[in-house]
Amino acid sequence: MSVTFQKRQKEMKRQEKQRAKAEKRAQKKTDTTAAVNPILSAEPQLQPLEDEAAQTPKTVTSVSSPE
Fold first, then answer.
1. Phi and psi for 12 in degrees, rounded to 5?
2. Is residue 66 part of a domain?
3. Does some domain include residue 30?
């Protein structure tokens, strides 16, 4: 094999490795985004249990305006 062919093969291998790393980073970024912001993810939202909802105090505040 000639040196030129070996250099070309080496460069192609380097570019392929770089492309694979970029794809992996992009996939990791989308996975992280889905975990951080569940609204953007396509997974269904979990609903609180009835016991937890009953334990949560509900506060109603009324605002009276001075007349």
1. -65, -40
2. no
3. yes
- Residue 19 near residue 13, CB atoms below 8 Å: no
Whole-model pTM? 0.45
> Could you give the number of structural domains in the chain?
1
- pLDDT single digits (tens) 3-59: 899 999 999 999 999 999 999 999 998 887 777 665 555 555 666 666 655 565 556
Burial class (CB in 10 A: 0-12, 13-18, 19+), 49: exposed
